[in-house]
Amino acid sequence: MQKESEVIFSKFSKGLKSLVRRKQVDSVHVRREGHQLARKLSAFDLTAIGVGTTIGAGVYVLVGTVAREHTGPALTVSFLIAGLAATLSAFCYAELASRCPSAGSAYHYTYICIGESVAWLIGWSLILEYTIGGSAIARGISPNLALFFGGEDKLPAFLVRHTIPQLDIVVDPCAAVLVLTVTVLLCAGIKESSLAQTVVTTVNVCAMLFIIIAGGYLACQTGWVGYELHSGFFPFGVNGMLAGSAVVFFSFIGFDAVTGAAEETKRPLRDLPLGIGMTLSLCCILYMLVSVVIVGLVPYYSLNPDTPISSAFSANGMQWAAYIVTAGAVTALCASLMGSLLPQPRLLMAMARDGLLPSFFSDISTHTQVPVKSTVTAGILAAVLAFFMDVSQLSGMVSVGTLLAFTVVAISILILRYAPPNKVPLPSSLQEYIDSVRMQFDAENLGTERKPFDDADIVKQSSHQFEDGEASNQYPLIQKQNSEDKQNQRSRRRKIALWNIAFFCIGVLVLTSAASAEYLPRFVSLLDLFDLNNFLIWLLRCHS
């Protein structure tokens, strides 16, 4: 009976260890078997992918809703605050992408820094986000196309939405056709799809530049009447401005699509941080300039919540500008659709490599050097959802998946800084040197009895070839061989750092709850927040 309990406990402990086991860094230093993804993307290509994915049609509607209900003329400040908050997340993604440049994005980083169970959850959350997000975007393109061509009766009959009375379902053939078209384009190759993304994004940016230039000219002619109000620049107060920042923050979601193409980047250490930084900078500048112009053309309470930009131009006698605005919205949706479907096959491929999905999804085409099977599977699933289902009610799941991914990536940065993974593979150059030294040693000492000569001995003997800090600068995740005392000291510091990270995460939750507790007296809330913030900063500095 005791042996059976010991066996059960052993199996249970092994199961728990398998849930928290961490993956080795299978980045550019590891050679994988089989065909690889083509490294053809530059920093400009990554920027085009990021800007196209981030700037969706939401900005063409969001400025009116947020200005009317939350911010008033202070909409520009809300975009600035939201951009700064998105920049903090972008810094985390940029560091992880440059240090672990492999497919999978947040799933890959979580598997390395936290463990398999959390990575599995993040992977499926991202799959749900990309699938539902792409389907929702595709169903939003057909109404804008109908508006652009003058009504649904102007569209071909096979693209018009139809209602199935027996099932009470509105099918959207246009959305399904668009998803399948983008899927075929993605299967053609990463360079071809990035070129198409660049063209569509350029058209969208040109439409926004027209809004900024033409709107600025009209506002100068009319005297910027939207800012000459008795209610002032903050009609809803600072709280309204911050509430508007929380709403417009979702306009910056999409820059993480850049990290999904990390394995196809020519120079990931340089191009990935550069692509993420340029993406957020361009998006923030365009958002702020558009908001300055639109809120200045007409008073914020006169904006149409459904078509704020078109209504602002129509109020100043430029009804024809609605066609340019609609063209920009259509191209923005197309670019966002391509950006939503691009990372998903790479994520499926990364999960299949790790054994969390069938190996079918990890196959790479020898001709196009893209995961065609994963791309086709993801495209068909998104097309079916876009054709049959009204996914607008499920669109909130996209925000949940994004929030979860951002949180886990931030935690991964803390773990990577204060408690980095122990086991990482040696770089190919150092591994080749170890193999050559071992072969030479075996040849010279053939026939003599000596103790086994392993990789650790070779690394110790060859340590004189690396100056202090050289190995860590070239390969930042590789830890040097230390003495037992240093290893024990590092182990103790790792435990302390992990506890600090746990306390920090709990403190953030308490901080968020306290900030949203409107029933507390303002003075008490601010005092508690100040003390808690100082405590968290002191706690992290003690063991940094």
Topology, element by element:
Elements: H1 2-20, H2 43-54, H3 58-71, H4 75-99, H5 106-113, H6 116-149, E1 162-164, E2 169-171, H7 173-187, H8 190-222, H9 237-248, H10 257-260, H11 268-297, H12 308-314, H13 321-341, H14 343-353, H15 372-388, H16 396-418, H17 428-444, H18 455-461, H19 470-474, H20 484-515, H21 522-542
Antiparallel strand pairs: 1-2
Helix pairs in contact: 2-8, 2-11, 2-13, 3-9, 4-9, 4-11, 4-16, 5-6, 5-16, 6-7, 6-13, 6-14, 6-15, 6-16, 7-13, 7-15, 8-11, 8-13, 12-13, 14-15, 16-20, 20-21
Keywords:
single chain, 544 residues, mainly alpha, two-stranded antiparallel sheet
Total number of helices:
21
Annotation, overall tally of beta strands: 2
Please write the string of helix (H) and strand (E) elements.
HHHHHHEEHHHHHHHHHHHHHHH
> If you compute it from the alpha carbons, what radius of gyration comes out, rounded to the nearest whole angstrom?
27 Å
Strand order of the largest sheet: 1-2
User: Unreliable stretches, pLDDT < 50, 5 or more residues?
Assistant: 27-31, 423-430, 448-482, 516-544
Strand residue percentage: under 5%
The geometry reads as globular
Distance between the termini: 49 Å
Pairing-aware structural class of the strands and helices? Answer: mainly alpha
Nearest-integer average pLDDT: 76
Main sheet record? 2 strands, antiparallel
Helix content: 55-70%
